Amino acid sequence: MTTFRALFAALMVVASFGLALAKLPPPPPMDDAAKAAAEEKKAKDATAAEAAKQLQTRIEDRVAARYIAEQRAKGIIVTPQMGPGGPPTDAAKGLSSQPEKAMAHSPAKK
């Protein structure tokens, strides 16, 4: 019987939540000042995100350099592996490192 009561209570909570959301009025349309403020906030957030990304990259590089130095001091050779965010290479762009050989077997253009 307690399972039934728990299910009934959960159903009532979900139903009342849905009913409460259904009664909320739609947000008013944005005027020009609000649109400009939204664009400004969007640009500021993008700048902050870019700065945070650059800071994260610098911190990761510093940690990696420290780890490599510590391992080198122990006599262990560490070769850093570039992750998915590394600099793009010709292979990542879909280009061959030897374009002459790649073009040698292509059909003649008409």
Describe the secondary structure blueprint for this structure.
Elements: H1 2-22, H2 32-74, H3 99-104
Characteristic key phrases:
0% strand; mainly alpha; 110 residues
Verbal overview:
With 110 residues, the protein is an all-alpha fold. It has a domain at 32-79. It has 3 helices and no strands. It has helices at residues 2-22, 32-74, 99-104. The relative contact order is 0.04. The model has no long low-confidence stretch (mean pLDDT 81).
Sheet with the most strands, sense and barrel status: none
Low-confidence stretches: none
Number of distinct beta strands: 0
Helix content: 55-70%
Radius of gyration: 29 Å
The succession of helices and strands, N to C, reads HHH
Counting DSSP H or I runs of 4 or more residues, the number of helices is 3
**Structural classification:** mainly alpha
Strand content: under 5%
Shape: extended
Task: Tell me, rounded to a whole number, the average pLDDT.
Answer: 81
Give the N-terminus to C-terminus distance in angstroms. 81 Å
